[in-house]
């Protein structure tokens, strides 16, 4: 069995990795997705359970947020393996996120709990949301007009040559 002190940095690694540019999903990075989704739903605190792949509050549990959680679980497994611990040594791994209402910032703190009940808590890591605003929740389906109601498309370049 390895030394437990080698796991002290794991909570910070998880938060930094989750907020990093490695975790990009379609139109933005994780801080962007979290910040814009939280603003749309007026949510201030989020809890992400890495090992179970869940997010609380449930309004924040959608594909963009949960898609990267298996990679974080893999990070935990790799860290445990490299330090000589069993894969089941960590029984709980969570990220607690606070969303600022004043700035486009969020702060995340990682906490993990081992099989012996020891809790490893990381520092609070602050990250900015950089991308332009985008909608994180799907809009209602648009009603499509009939072909006769649509505006005619502009002529193509070959249609202008006569």
What can you see in these coordinates?
The protein is an alpha+beta fold and 162 residues long. It has one domain (4-137). 27% of the residues lie in helices and 24% in strands. The protein is built from five helices and eight strands, in the order αββαββααββββα. The chain has helices spanning 10-19, 30-41, 63-66, 69-82, 157-160; strands at residues 24-25, 28-29, 45-49, 54-56, 90-99, 105-114, 119-121, 125-128. Strands 3, 4, 5, 6, 7 and 8 form a six-stranded antiparallel β-sheet that branches.
The poorly predicted ranges are 140-145
Overall residue-averaged pLDDT value: 83
Q: How would you sum up the major sheet? A: 6 strands, antiparallel
How would you sum up the global shape?
elongated
**Which percent range fits the helix content?**
25-40%
Structural class: alpha+beta
N-C termini distance: 82 Å
- Strand segment tally: 8
Strand content: 15-25%
Radius of gyration: 22 Å
Number of domains: 1
Question: Could you give the topology of this structure?
Answer:
Layout: H1 10-19, E1 24-25, E2 28-29, H2 30-41, E3 45-49, E4 54-56, H3 63-66, H4 69-82, E5 90-99, E6 105-114, E7 119-121, E8 125-128, H5 157-160
Antiparallel strand pairs: 1-2, 3-4, 3-5, 5-6, 6-7, 6-8
Helix pairs in contact: 1-4
Q: Short description, anyone?
A:
The chain is α+β, with helices and mostly antiparallel strands and about 160 residues long. It contains 5 helices and 8 strands.
Task: For the structure shown, list the relevant keywords.
two-stranded antiparallel ribbon, elongated, 8 strands, six-stranded antiparallel β-sheet, 5 helices, 162 residues, alpha+beta
């Amino acid at each position: 069995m390895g030394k437990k002190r080698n796991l002290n940095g794991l909570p910070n690694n998880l938060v930094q990795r989750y907020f990093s540019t490695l975790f990009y999903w379609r139109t933005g990075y994780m801080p962007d997705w979290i910040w814009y989704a939280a603003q749309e739903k007026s949510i201030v605190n989020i809890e992400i359970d890495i090992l179970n792949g869940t997010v609380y509050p449930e309004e924040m549990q959608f594909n963009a947020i949960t898609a990267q959680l298996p990679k974080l679980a893999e990070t935990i497994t790799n860290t445990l393996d490299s330090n000589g611990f069993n894969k089941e040594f960590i029984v709980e791994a969570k990220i607690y996120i606070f969303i600022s209402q004043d700035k486009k910032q969020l702060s995340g703190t990682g906490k993990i709990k081992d099989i012996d009940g020891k809790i490893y808590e990381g520092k609070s890591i602050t990250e900015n949301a950089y991308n332009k605003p985008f909608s994180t929740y799907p809009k209602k389906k648009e009603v499509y007009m009939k072909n006769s109601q649509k505006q005619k498309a502009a002529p193509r370049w070959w249609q202008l040559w006569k």
